[in-house]
Specification:
The structure holds two protein chains of two kinds.
Chain A: H1 3-19, H2 21-41, E1 50-55, H3 60-63, E2 72-77, H4 80-88, E3 94-97, E4 102-105, H5 110-122, E5 130-133, H6 141-172, H7 174-179, H8 185-215, H9 223-245, H10 251-268, H11 280-286, H12 290-304, H13 308-332
Chain B: E1 3-14, E2 17-28, E3 32-36, H1 43-51, E4 58-63, E5 66-67, H2 70-75, E6 76-79, H3 91-99, H4 108-114, H5 130-142, E7 148-152, H6 160-175, E8 179-183, H7 187-193, E9 196-201, E10 204-209, H8 211-218, E11 222-227, E12 241-244, E13 248-253, H9 256-265, E14 274-277, H10 280-288
Classes of the chains: A alpha/beta, B alpha/beta.
Chain lengths: 336, 294
């Protein structure tokens, strides 16, 4: 491994990325526009699907038609403190304790407000239920969704920025030209990954700062821990991109494979909505996706102030996924 | 002269197709060696095997008497027929980047001068003309001051001026004692630049030698060329071979005087007659046939 050769490729790839204005703008503006769009969309009414945690049994004598309301999903809960945390985090819109006549909503949640009104109008005697407020840190939906949007943007940039670019290099003959030099596959691939890593982290920091300036989201944990989550997360996603690009020669096929990876990951990892209540198989499958661990760890750091020890399980999973995908990618890599 | 690069009983199969079929080759130090052949003859595969880009199915390639290894990569320069460079990178940055990949390199200023890159050195490499791009690719091939340089159809698509200019650059490289392996479809180019040529077909070398030796060995006649319109198809003697092309007729003869007398006897106008010696292109067509290869 020659550092001189690694650095030459690294610097060249950086120049290529920075000078490609359209790609650079896309990488910065896409997440900002998503955040702005969601901040706007979720500031008013609009959702028709609600999740209510039920402690005890549904009792029609007190709640009337509430439990028959359409578009509400009732999920049994057994542990009140953890259910209340989910209300704080917008994972549940309401928790109702039928036995003791109490219910909790998040004051920041438009869904909670609607459910509050629905419960009061449906119950036989509104006085039976007393409204409670959750005690933890209240967050807006946009605060909850932001770590996911940052991670999702990173995912597309990692998968396509490494996978698609390497396939393009192979198809247009760039790899063939480099192969004719003393450059080794390890030097080439590590330069590609290192270049994309720092560019992604740099753009993520910019987007993070810009978004914070606009919507003032909470950041309760350590910036260093969050940086580690994103750095390790980006590495794991780039390794997946490398695996796809190891032998693929068609850009169309590579794009298809990358889409097959990215879209299920987007839906399963809880970027936009909580996986609370989805089939247990899907919840388990989500644990195989790096994006799930990135989002869970980033939310834990940003919203709950989780420390290194608390996110170490996610970091370990990301490190293992990186090692496996990168090892396979380097092993399978062909210049032609 | 000792062989700088040699191939011994080289074979390459692709899914049942024998692209290279037991090829032996030796390129002496300081020689400009031309590898010629029609499309599908196995020329590109042979060159890629010699460049170390592909692995042979059987056979051995030796550089300075040793199998291809790390030293070979440091010692060679390759100008591929079609190469993409990284986007948004200038000519100078490309030279620096490729230079960084080698232990020993020529100064960028020397490459600029040698390959006449001065007029566009800070231009994005995507915005170069065909001739400028070929000169940049040649400069990249020379960046490590290689002992052995592979030039794969380097002037394809260039206008006559750019081609002549490129030939001058290659002549200068030759003058420094470098060894070159050139593939081309232009026989004039091979004749002009190569000390030795090998003509390939069906994965084998079918003729090899200096251009003069090959022409002397295969031809002892000259070509009388007339426009088709001037040739009334008279009954000529068997000593004259007639080749009909689309717009012209070529008459092959060992005795020009006798041929002219015969044509005059048939009242054929010689006003537009051209007499030329046999060329490498004639030899190429004679050995590989005149049918279009698919």
């Amino acid at each position: 491994m020659s550092f001189k050769r690694f650095w030459a490729l690294f610097a060249c790839r950086n120049l290529e990325f920075v000078r490609d204005r359209s790609s650079l703008s896309w990488n910065l503006l896409f997440p900002l526009s998503l955040i702005a769009g969601f901040a706007f969309a979720f500031s008013g009414p609009g959702l028709t699907l609600y999740k209510v945690g039920v402690l005890g049994t549904a009792d029609a004598s007190t709640t009337g038609e509430f439990f028959q309301t359409r578009y509400i999903r009732f999920l049994p809960v057994v542990d009140l403190p953890s259910a209340l945390t989910k209300v704080e985090r917008h994972q549940l819109d309401m928790v109702i304790d039928t036995a003791r006549g109490r219910y909790w909503v998040n004051e920041e949640s438009p869904q909670g407000y609607v459910l509050d009104r629905v419960l009061r109008s449906a119950s036989t005697d509104p006085a039976v239920f007393s409204k409670q407020t959750v005690n933890g840190r209240l967050i807006r939906y946009v605060d909850w969704v932001l770590p996911g949007v940052l991670a999702m943007n990173m995912m597309f940039s990692c998968l396509f920025g490494v996978g698609y670019v390497i396939v393009r290099y192979r198809k247009n003959g760039t790899l063939k030209r480099l192969r004719a030099t003393p450059l080794t596959p390890l030097e080439f691939l590590s330069a590609q990954l290192a270049s994309r890593l720092w560019l992604i982290l740099g753009s993520t920091v910019l987007v993070f700062a810009g978004t914070h300036w606009v919507i003032r989201f909470p950041m309760h944990g350590s910036y260093l821990n969050l940086f580690i989550v994103f750095a390790l997360g980006a590495t794991s996603l780039m390794s997946l991109g490398l695996l796809v690009a190891a032998r693929t020669t068609s850009e169309e096929f590579a794009a298809g494979l990358l889409n097959v990876m990215s879209w299920p990951m987007t839906f399963l990892s809880g970027v936009w909505f909580s996986l609370e209540g989805v089939h247990p198989f899907l919840q388990k499958a989500a644990q195989l996706a790096p994006l799930t661990h990135i989002i869970d760890a980033a939310r834990a750091v940003m919203l709950d102030g989780a420390g290194f020890a608390e996110i170490s399980g996610h970091l370990l999973a990301l490190a293992a996924m990186s090692a496996i995908a990168m090892g396979l990618g380097v092993w399978l890599f062909r210049w032609d | 002269m000792t062989a700088l690069l040699e191939a011994c009983r080289l074979v390459k199969h692709f899914r049942g197709v024998k692209a290279v079929d037991g090829l032996d080759l030796a390129i002496p130090t300081g020689c400009c060696f031309g590898l010629l052949g029609p499309n599908g003859a196995g020329k590109t595969t042979t060159v890629e095997l010699l460049e170390g880009i592909q692995e042979p199915t059987r056979g051995v390639i030796r550089y300075r008497g040793e199998r291809l290894g790390a030293r070979f990569r440091q010692d060679i320069g390759i100008m591929f027929q079609s190469t993409a460079l990284q986007d948004f990178i200038t000519v100078r940055e490309n030279l620096r980047m490729f230079g960084s990949l080698y232990r020993h390199t020529l100064p960028v200023e020397q490459l600029i001068e040698d390959c006449a890159l001065g007029g566009f050195i800070d231009r994005d490499s995507r915005k170069l003309s065909g001739g400028q791009r070929q000169r940049l690719l040649l400069a990249i091939a020379l960046v490590n001051d290689p002992e052995l340089i592979f030039l794969d159809e380097p002037t394809t698509g260039l206008d006559p001026q750019a081609r002549r200019n490129f030939w001058e650059l290659v002549q200068r490289i030759k003058a420094r004692g470098k060894t070159l392996l050139l593939t081309t479809h232009y026989m004039e180019e091979a004749y002009h630049l190569c000390d030795e040529v090998a003509i390939m077909d069906h994965g084998r070398i079918i003729a090899q030698g200096t251009p003069r030796e090959l022409l002397a060995a295969h031809f002892d006649d000259v070509v009388l060329q007339l426009p088709q319109a001037d040739f009334s198809n008279p009954p000529l003697s068997p000593a004259l071979t007639v080749i009909r092309n689309r717009d012209s007729v070529e008459i092959l003869t060992r005795d020009v005087n006798a041929a002219i007398e015969e044509l005059l006897a048939h009242h054929i106008s010689l006003r537009r007659l051209q007499i030329r010696p046999r060329t490498l292109e004639d030899l190429f067509l004679e050995l590989t046939g005149r049918e279009l290869r698919t």
